[in-house]
Amino acid sequence: MVSSTVMTTPVRTTTSAQLDAVWRSESARLVAGLVRVVRDVALAQDLAQDALVAALAQWPDTGVPANPGAWLMTVAKRRGIDTFRRADVADRGHRELAAALPTGFTPDFDARLDDTVDDDLLRLMFICCHPVLTPPARVALTLRLLGGLTTSEIARSFLTSEATVAQRISRAKRSIADAGVPFEEPDRAQRAERLTAVLGVVYLIFNEGYSATAGSDWMRPDLCDEALRLGRSLAAVASDSAEAHALVALMSIQASRTAARIAPDGHPVLLLDQDRRRWDQLLIRNGLAALGRAEQLTGEGPPGRYQLQASIAACHARAAVAADTDWLRICTYYAELAVLTNSPVVELNRAVAVGKAYGPAAGLAVTAALVGLPQLAGYHLLPSVRGDLLSALGRHAEAAVEFRRAASLTTNEREQALLTARATPTGEATDGSGAGPRQA
Q1: Which pLDDT tens digit goes with each residue over 126-165?
Q2: pLDDT more than 90, % of the chain
Q3: Over 90: is that where the pLDDT of 235 sits?
Q4: Alpha helices of 304-343 — where are they, by DSSP H?
Q5: What does the alpha-carbon distance between residue 306 and residue 312 come to, in Å, rounded to a whole number?
Q6: Cα–Cα distance, 152 to 148 (Å, whole number)
Q7: Distance CA 314, CA 253 (A)
């Protein structure tokens, strides 16, 4: 909860920015708590929106309350009571719910949210990432309900139309209702699988911000920030999950490079060319601390995929200069990750590390097994990595062919320009660092 010192505002000075900040910090808790009460995601969101409308009407005159989350919850519950009492409730379950709501309700604007807030948030995360939903629907619903983003903000971030995002969210809520998704945490047997799905959605959001798939921007830091915030919330409510802490570590260390990843002219700067003095040391320290927590929880057991990726990121973060990077250790981590995931993308990243540890010919040999794989048929980073390795070997004509192919496959304009430049003699890149988000 935001302290009263920070959020209390003098009368008639509440701004839209302040309201937005409160909504971003409190909306997930608000919706999660309402879902537990009303057992309906769509209704919970409607009640939360009603509370926001009330805040927009009152706070400019009265100022932001000392406990804005409690204020919003109180108003939303009052609207919920009115809704149930007005409704001609036909089914027995709703009649019981209406009867259970308190009478003579008096708003207590200084009351705090109840102690179940962590359970509510985790439950809502599981609902947003339920297997009944498609991956795009999971992302949209997570950003809407847990991130507090508007449909227009989500659409802008993913370069799609507002109508498409609204339709995804509407269908997601309808699918949850039609499937009778229970409003409680999954049992122990299902929990690990569902938690993995939640982590996957959060990291997907982060990666879209870190390396935008389309458009004119190399990255979208707002999405990275949102994913990191969601990840921290998840690690707080699922504090016994090593992978939740590891994901926070991974995103923190990757996000620490943001300022160094873009040149003054807007062009991308690859990992080994970055000015490491511009890396955010606080994010790095936070990331390493989260990695340490993950390692503690893992103990003697095998590390998970996010812990291995965070360990790779930590190797880069601990190197004061690029030449100090422990590529042999990184190769080991990638080998473990390849066995764990059986992913050709991981194997491509391993090729980059092998190229740095054992020479570009060795790295190129790893990529040879990936050429022709259907999973990588349209993946622009495969020819990009091969171009880097061929260039390092002095095979510039072959490298140019690979770079041109990579440029034709990406839909990100900044990346197209970078790859096209590499296809010319003056644009040759020899650092072998083009294999995806972890190398940039």
Answers
A1: 899 899 999 899 989 988 888 888 888 888 767 688 999 9
A2: 42
A3: yes
A4: 305-318, 327-341
A5: 10
A6: 12
A7: 7
Identify residue 213 by its one-letter amino acid code: T
CB-based contacts of 277: which residues, under 8 Å, 6+ apart?
A: none
Q: Which helix (H) or strand (E) holds 215?
A: strand 214-215
- The whole model's pTM is what? 0.75
Other Cβ atoms less than 10 A from the Cβ of 352: the count is 30
For residue 153, what pLDDT is reported? Answer: 80
Q: Does the pLDDT value for residue 415 go beyond 80?
A: yes
Is the pLDDT reported for residue 429 higher than 60? no
CA atoms of 238 and 244, how far apart (whole Å): 7
The three-state secondary structure class of 214 is: strand
Answer for the pair 165, 142: CB distance below 8 angstroms, yes or no.
no
List Cβ<8 Å contacts ≥24 apart for 270-273.
270/429, 270/431, 270/433, 270/434, 270/439, 270/440, 271/316, 271/322, 271/431, 271/433, 271/439, 271/440, 272/322, 272/325, 272/431, 272/433, 273/322, 273/431, 273/433
**Strand partners for 262:** 268
